[in-house]
Specification:
This protein is mostly beta strands. The chain is built from 4 helices and 21 strands. It folds into 3 domains: about 140 residues, no CATH class; about 140 residues; about 80 residues, Immunoglobulin-like (Sandwich), CATH 2.60.40.3080. Helix content is about 10%, strand content about 20%. A hairpin with a 4-residue loop joins strand 17 and strand 18. The radius of gyration is 31 Å and the shape is elongated. Keywords: Signal.
Length: about 525
């Protein structure tokens, strides 16, 4: 008989334990004062012992207890809600009002609990840099997610948006098997902290990560830097604003599968720590990179990116004061908008002459207030002018603080004749053509013949040359190889003028030649 009783007790205990593990558990502090911007779009505002719980589901169960005083509890069975439900905790037992907290547990009950949603975006702010949300729950009163439980979430859209006091301490992981939208899940939570269990979240079905952790911007309280480098985001299509404004985030995301991503706009805008390699990212499907690194500290090589489908790079490096990497290998043939592209980018000093601007519509202020020197600006002008695909009627205003070489006056005038507006730049003193063909070369009496050449160029008086590089006048590399004989096959080059760079052990010698 005793054994039967013990077995029954064990059965009941295990059942209660299993139930406890199935619950979605949060901690709330209902005495927190409410500011005007924290008002809830609900039938009425809450009192000091109430919360609006923004749950969605049918016939689910809510139970609660006062933290430290479990005898003060309540249960709400068969709750059905599409927006929010009011929870009234009654009078607290804790004599210290400011210490009163409640543990709220949600289970499927006789139906299913599907979603928590603290905000709903105002439609007219959807395109804003920082969208505005209507509050559906008591955003200032939720403090913690203790446990995710076995809830099968259907969406995490704006799940905890604006919940400024939230921290996630749950050791378990949420069930996202039915989730495709996690946009704005933790948006505008500057002091957000999440336990390391986030590393194990299965996000493989999620397509929309827009603004998931973004909208921050307070370096005094932002320590968010979770280990999410191994996340499987292979279904992701939108990662816009995902880390926007994060002050401490600096995880290595180079292993992420971004092959389906189309939107990377604002992704790292105003991030003040992120500077990890991204050269392994597959960007072949991306169409929007606007504002991606605006006002960030990023300075890694991304010259290998496939940007052939990108149409918008507006302000991509605007005020990105540290970025100074070559982008000469980019296929820019589909880019339509590059307004403010490098505006205020204090360190950027590269040639963009290799870019194909055939689809360009707007380039206003693209090079305004940056550090491109006379040589690289001249290469840029020459490359664009000499490309027959360069479109007409493009404004580059303003071009203050930029200067161009006398060698590219003709090229600049070609652009102006095509309807380009170039104002603010000035004639400089740098040389990019003649200086490459006389004094330096004569020192070693190295020469190229024939010049112009059709298929092969021959080099005279060379010794100890290890390798060579051939670039066009825009600075774009078109050939590179070791040099073990005195000739180079240029048969595959298109007609035009090129620069041959001969790599010696301790110096580089440059020669100009013409391919017929």
């Amino acid at each position: 008989m005793l054994k039967k009783i013990s077995a029954f007790i064990l059965f009941v205990f295990l059942g209660q334990f299993a139930k406890a593990q199935n619950e979605f558990i949060t901690i709330w502090k209902p005495t927190t004062a409410i500011n005007m911007d924290e008002m809830v779009a609900a039938p009425h505002q809450v009192l000091a012992n109430q919360i609006w719980f923004p749950g969605v589901g049918q016939n689910y169960t809510i139970s609660w207890e006062e933290v430290g005083y479990p005898q003060h509890n309540g249960i709400m069975p068969n709750v059905t809600s599409t927006t929010q439900v009011l929870i009234d905790f009654g009078n607290a037992l804790n004599p210290v009002a400011d210490d009163v907290k409640y543990r709220v547990k949600v289970s499927n009950g006789n139906g299913s609990f599907k979603q928590i949603r603290f905000g709903l975006m105002y439609p007219n702010s959807a395109s804003d840099q920082i969208p505005v949300f209507e509050n559906l729950g008591s955003i200032e009163r939720i403090l913690e997610v203790e446990q995710w439980g076995n809830i099968q979430w259907i969406s995490m859209y704006s799940a905890f948006v604006n919940c400024k006091n939230l921290k996630v301490t749950a050791a378990d992981t949420p069930n996202f098997n039915s989730v495709t939208d996690a946009s704005y899940m933790f948006y505008r939570i500057p002091a957000l902290t999440i336990s390391n269990s986030i590393a194990n979240w299965n996000v493989s079905t999620i397509k929309n990560f827009q603004g998931m952790f973004g909208g921050s911007g307070d370096p005094t309280i932002d320590t968010f830097n979770p280990p999410i480098n191994n996340w499987n985001i292979s279904s992701a299509e939108n990662i816009s604003k995902m880390f926007q404004g994060r002050q401490a985030f600096n995880q290595n995301l180079n292993g992420w599968n971004t092959s389906n991503v189309k939107n990377m706009s604002y992704l790292f805008q105003s991030t003040k720590a992120f500077n990890q390699p991204l050269d392994n990212w597959n960007t072949s499907m991306v169409t929007d990179m606007s504002h991606m690194f605006t006002n960030s500290v990023f300075n890694q090589s991304i010259n290998s990116w496939n940007v052939s489908n990108v149409t918008d790079i507006t302000s991509m490096f605007h005020d990105a004061d540290y970025f100074n990497k070559p982008l000469s290998s980019w296929n820019t043939s589909n880019i339509q908008y590059m307004t403010g592209l490098f505006a205020g980018a204090d360190s950027f000093n590269q040639s963009l002459g290799s870019w194909n601007l055939s689809s360009l519509i707007n380039a206003s202020a693209a090079l305004s207030g940056n550090s491109i020197d006379c040589v690289n600006y001249s290469y840029t002008l020459a490359g664009w002018a000499q490309n027959p695909n360069t479109p007409n009627n493009i404004s580059m205003l303003p071009l203050l603080m930029l200067s161009y070489s006398p060698d590219v006056v003709v090229d600049r005038n070609i652009l102006i004749s095509k309807g380009w507006t170039l104002f603010g730049d000035t004639l400089g003193t740098c040389q990019i053509k003649e200086s490459l063909s006389t004094s330096e070369i004569n020192n070693l009496k190295i020469s190229i013949y024939p010049n112009p050449a059709q298929d092969i160029i021959y080099l005279k008086n060379i010794s100890n040359v290890k390798s060579y590089v051939i670039t066009d006048l825009s600075g774009r590399m078109v050939m590179k190889d070791s040099l073990n004989k005195d000739s180079i096959n240029i048969q595959n080059l298109t007609s035009g003028t090129y620069i041959l760079e001969l790599m010696f052990k301790d110096k580089i010698q440059r020669l100009k030649f013409i391919k017929k």
